[in-house]
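sorry for the late reply, my laptop died twice this morning and i had to redo everyting from scratch. anyway the thing you sent over, i finally got around to it. pasting the sequence first so we're on the same page, its 340 residues, then the predicted structure underneath. double check i copied it right bc i was rushing
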Amino acid sequence: MATAADLPTYKDVADAAAVLASVAHHTPIETSRTLDDQLGVRCYVKCENLQRMGAFKFRGAYTAVNHYLNAAAADGRELKGVLTYSSGNHAQAIALASTKTLGIPSTIIMPTDAPALKLKATQEYGGTVVFYDRYKEKRDDVAQKVKATLPEGTVFIPPYDHKYVIAGQGTVGKELIEDLHSKSITLDYLFVCVGGGGLISGISLAVKKLSPNTQIIGVEPEAGNDAQQSMQQGRIVHIETPKTIADGAQTQYLGVLTFDIMKRNVSKIITVTDEQLIDEMKFFGERMKMIVEPTGCLGLAGLRKMVNSGEIEKGANCGVIISGGNVDLERYCKLISSTC
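ok and here's the structure:
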């Protein structure tokens, strides 16, 4: 059970925004007349594919590492290193924030089938990579073994279930709502991808503070609907590693902190197929001139699904989060076109 001290609040999100102001990109909100005409709504796309290292994960990683760095300094200690596990984007984010930016050694536990682009970037940012088999080994067990080999003073920063990681990710929502409010636009719906829940829970803290009537819709792969099951059953449901092209959403269960926040702030969770994700990859590429990874397409795929089912009223203001754009070009081409 999460305690009040463990759970981030909007104040933590606001504090994270101040920390990130000089190091993270304030990403743009893009629109498409074609998209609006297709869906019959007004769509506002927050482009975290244009964030440093190509995904929103930099926000949470830097916020968390900065917290531990300051806490160590206040106690007269030295932060010796950072350990985490990730399929790719959090791996890159920790390596960039910890090692490349702040000069702190980072060790990243990555699955053997991690996307080559994300593995290469993690190593180029200075992260030391340890591999594991995500289908046969539990990453928490691997993390315990690896941590025992690292210097005392090394901290573990998980990909999503962490107060300061969640707070950092929440700055995506804070920026989006404040930027739209500056143009007198209020969102009726906001569609956010769901893996472990760090992004959607953080965003929800900002949205419910700044735009309380906005409905937050989570979208996950049909093959891995643990969040949907968890919300329906009122408990964290564990599943096997899902087989989906959305590698950033191949989580087996929500976090304790993220689930606690989601239960209060998220209206519903829906699922989409891999085929629907590919359709949105094509749309982003052809119409909005952006390369978006499959996980980053979950939000738009979810919006389109709910529009087609008649659950979104015509003319509604709808926000969509693109979580990232890190995808191997060879794989991208294979996914969007057999002749590419």
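The beta strands are 29-30, 42-47, 81-85, 106-111, 128-132, 154-156, 189-193, 215-221, 268-272, 317-322.
thats about all i looked at so far, will dig more tmrw
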